[in-house]
Amino acid sequence: MNSKNDIHPDSKLAEIIINHPYVILMLEHFEILLPVQDLTIKQICEKYNINETIFIAFTNLYCNKKGIPALKLTADDAVSITRFLAASHRYYSELIYPEIMQLIEDMSKQNNHREMKLVSVFFADYFKEVTTHLDYENQIFHPYVNCLVARDKGVEHVENQVDYSVSQYQVRHDDIEMKLADLKNLLIKYLPTYNDQLIRRKLLFLLSELEFDLNIHSKIEELILIPLAIELENKNIVACK
Amino acid sequence: MKRTHILILEDAPVIREGLKFIMDSLRNVEEVAIACTFDEFTHLLKRKSYQMVLISPNYLHSHHNQIQQLRNLYSSMKWIGVQYTIIPEALLSKLDGVVDVYDNQDTLATKLSKWLDTQSDDALQNKDILSERETEVLRLLAMGKSNKEIADELNISTNTVITHRKNISQKTSIKSVSGLTIYAVTQNLISLDDY
After folding, report:
1. What ipTM was assigned to the predicted interfaces of this complex?
2. Do A89 and A39 sit in the same domain of this protein?
3. Domain B128-186, CATH 1.10.10.10 — does that match?
4. B155-175 mean pLDDT
5. Does the beta-carbon distance from B178 to A223 stay under 8 Å?
6. Greater pLDDT, B30 or A11
7. Structural domain of residue A174, as residue ranges?
8. Which class does domain B4-121 fall in?
9. Which residue, among B176, B192, B194, would best test binding to A if mutated, counting the most A CBs under 10 Å from its CB?
10. Which of A22, B58, B67, B137 is deepest in the core (most CB within 10 A)?
């Protein structure tokens, strides 16, 4: 039985966004633009050709409702999920990380404590690590998942990725959230201030927003995409290698 | 008792939500996170540190070996079973304690403070202040030295260095070496010339 707060196909997206504005981030990753008028989830999914089950599961995550239900997903869903993740990667590398970097620069101009120089270096180095992480997924893991999907659908001529498997990705999949939390703690607890409260607040809000989004991003990768890719791999492991 | 973060692994929704509801109402409990599946449980453990985990009997049976491995990995955490069916003695002996679904709020509060207070009295007394040895380890770490180099310099084992590092991160809330380096500069433990 559904409770009144459950998200279901007839829920109006606008009402969900009013209570949970971070859902807008999810919409952008699905490449859905505001305004959404009075459309329900079912209507939005039809309009943008998105699997309703995935859309509702992701919306629950962005509404901070705990837990991921056991989802029955198909090979086509793996493609939608990699597309969603790739759009998120573009948002991270082209928009939010550069925006944060700019704010750190602005803060360094206001606050010339010696520690701020270290913060700029810290974030620039961290951004390089994130870029390596995202590039690996864009160039190796997502194409591999798409290869598994193509094989599953019986496509004959698929470019092989010899000697690759999901387990290699699992070993390599590192945590890119830790340094964000470190930076938040440094800003909240330790970094001396000098006329920078406004920028510091903006920076903390952006960092919290990014942390929230990245946390869900890694849940989608580890708890939805990886199990689905392993399932596809087991189905056609011989065919794909 | 310090502010406690608890993680519950329980697949039965009514028990899960009930436990969370009561735990949330206890003083000094800061956060009660929930995992419905074992994958979600390991995912959350990797990402955050908890002082206590509560595990349903179903998972104690079905994931017995994995739980033992995790327990060795996260040995400073309290591992508590949730009892609503009989848990065999062999499994019980490997846990730090058991909560019973018939426990009321007061009993749970008493059990929790017993388990957590005995955890680390020293750490509680000096909750956020780095000890002299931890400060030394942090200073060397911030200067770019490896665990092995720090161990040699301070004449302690690498494992002891790792324990100090864990305590430093817990006290400062900062985990990465580069983040700790900035912290060390803010506290005047190293100067930028050392860096």
Report:
1. 0.85
2. no
3. yes
4. 92
5. no
6. A11
7. 75-240
8. alpha beta
9. B176
10. B137
